[in-house]
């Protein structure tokens, strides 16, 4: 269903790799709601995914940018304003990657070069993006910036590895930069803490099948899908949430406030028999 929630709004969407990506679903939904945007991803992802297909479907341009490179982000933001014909109203940061996770390094046996790369891609890239937007005066007043997080930032999920630390860092950047963006530019900054979701990044985490099933059984409303995450993101881009800022917003079917559910207890008790 479409409500024209984003009619007349312009933005940038980072991180659509393939049709499973949360950013992909968000781009489709923003398009349905009347928003215009530029798509961006790391140059290497252009070769791996099928972002071109999404660009055609939504009538968007693609401007490649490695989100760890400030020059790339500067070029992206300038070109996006040119292409879209004005300042921006929304930005989605939907980027995450840990080299330690990819290489299967245990949390107690990290390669710190990989750790550095991981926090640069997953967290500092959000600071870099906001700093460029801030310095270039690229956001309209009452604009909205959103990044995606996961609850391993607050609770222990052993296999989530250093991505847990990266997400804690990301959420802190959202608050710290959000203060200045709010005070100086009347722009809001939030993170959405999403349920486990079967995407390229998600399924790369060891034991993913187990914790997506566990989270689903634990959550009174079940896991939130990528499409539902897209819908929630739209509300944060819309004018209906103007005073929501500096928040980490759980979008997880209730998981984050659960102790135990009957289903999880039943499964556990079955194993005891
Ligand atoms: P995805 O694999 O589809 O998206 C990750 C994106 O990050 C890819 O498009 C990739 O090309 C991009 N990326 C990696 N390095 C980059 C760089 N240097 N510059 C620019 N882009 C780069 O997976 P998904 O799940 O859609 O991930 C989106 C966000 O959602 C991430 O922040 C992820 O941590 C977060 N998230 C995912 C959950 C899941 O279970 N899938 C749960 C909670 C949060």
Automatic annotation (TrEMBL):
<keyword id="KW-0275">Fatty acid biosynthesis</keyword>
<feature type="binding site">
    <location>
        <position position="95"/>
    </location>
    <ligand>
        <name>NAD(+)</name>
    </ligand>
</feature>
<comment type="pathway">
    <text>Lipid metabolism; fatty acid biosynthesis.</text>
</comment>
<protein>
    <recommendedName>
        <fullName>Enoyl-[acyl-carrier-protein] reductase [NADH]</fullName>
        <ecNumber>1.3.1.9</ecNumber>
    </recommendedName>
</protein>
<keyword id="KW-0276">Fatty acid metabolism</keyword>
<feature type="binding site">
    <location>
        <position position="167"/>
    </location>
    <ligand>
        <name>NAD(+)</name>
    </ligand>
</feature>
<feature type="active site" description="Proton acceptor">
    <location>
        <position position="150"/>
    </location>
</feature>
<keyword id="KW-0560">Oxidoreductase</keyword>
<keyword id="KW-0444">Lipid biosynthesis</keyword>
<dbReference type="GO" id="GO:0004318">
    <property type="term" value="F:enoyl-[acyl-carrier-protein] reductase (NADH) activity"/>
</dbReference>
<keyword id="KW-0443">Lipid metabolism</keyword>
<keyword id="KW-0520">NAD</keyword>
<comment type="similarity">
    <text>Belongs to the short-chain dehydrogenases/reductases (SDR) family. FabI subfamily.</text>
</comment>
<dbReference type="Pfam" id="PF13561">
    <property type="entry name" value="adh_short_C2"/>
</dbReference>
<feature type="binding site">
    <location>
        <position position="15"/>
    </location>
    <ligand>
        <name>NAD(+)</name>
    </ligand>
</feature>
<feature type="active site" description="Proton acceptor">
    <location>
        <position position="160"/>
    </location>
</feature>
<dbReference type="InterPro" id="IPR014358">
    <property type="entry name" value="Enoyl-ACP_Rdtase_NADH"/>
</dbReference>
<dbReference type="InterPro" id="IPR036291">
    <property type="entry name" value="NAD(P)-bd_dom_sf"/>
</dbReference>
<dbReference type="InterPro" id="IPR002347">
    <property type="entry name" value="SDR_fam"/>
</dbReference>
<feature type="binding site">
    <location>
        <begin position="21"/>
        <end position="22"/>
    </location>
    <ligand>
        <name>NAD(+)</name>
    </ligand>
</feature>
<dbReference type="GO" id="GO:0006633">
    <property type="term" value="P:fatty acid biosynthetic process"/>
</dbReference>
């Amino acid at each position: 269903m479409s409500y024209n929630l984003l009619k007349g709004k312009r933005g940038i969407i980072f991180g659509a790799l393939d049709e499973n990506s949360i950013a992909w679903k968000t781009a489709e939904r923003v398009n349905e709601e009347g928003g215009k945007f530029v798509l961006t991803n790391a140059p290497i992802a252009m070769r791996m995914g099928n972002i071109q297909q999404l660009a055609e479907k939504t009538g968007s341009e693609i401007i490649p940018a490695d989100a760890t490179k400030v020059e790339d982000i500067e070029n992206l933001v300038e070109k996006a304003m040119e292409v879209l014909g004005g300042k921006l109203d929304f930005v989605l940061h939907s980027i995450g990657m840990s080299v330690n996770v990819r290489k299967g390094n245990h949390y107690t046996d990290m390669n710190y070069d990989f750790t550095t790369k991981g926090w640069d891609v997953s967290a500092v890239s959000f600071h870099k993006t906001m700093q460029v937007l801030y310095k270039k005066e690229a956001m309209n007043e009452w604009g909205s910036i959103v990044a995606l997080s996961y609850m391993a930032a607050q609770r222990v999920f052993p296999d989530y590895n250093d991505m847990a630390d990266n997400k804690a860092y990301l959420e802190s950047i959202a608050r710290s930069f959000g203060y200045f963006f709010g005070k100086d530019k009347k722009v809001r900054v939030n993170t959405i803490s999403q349920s486990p979701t079967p995407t390229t990044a998600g399924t790369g985490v060891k034991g993913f099948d187990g914790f997506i099933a566990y989270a689903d059984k634990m959550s009174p409303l079940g896991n939130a899908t990528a499409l539902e995450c897209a819908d929630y993101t739209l509300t944060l881009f819309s004018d209906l949430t103007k005073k929501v800022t500096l928040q980490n917003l759980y979008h997880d079917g209730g998981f984050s406030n659960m102790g135990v559910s009957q289903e999880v207890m039943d499964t556990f008790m079955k194993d005891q028999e």
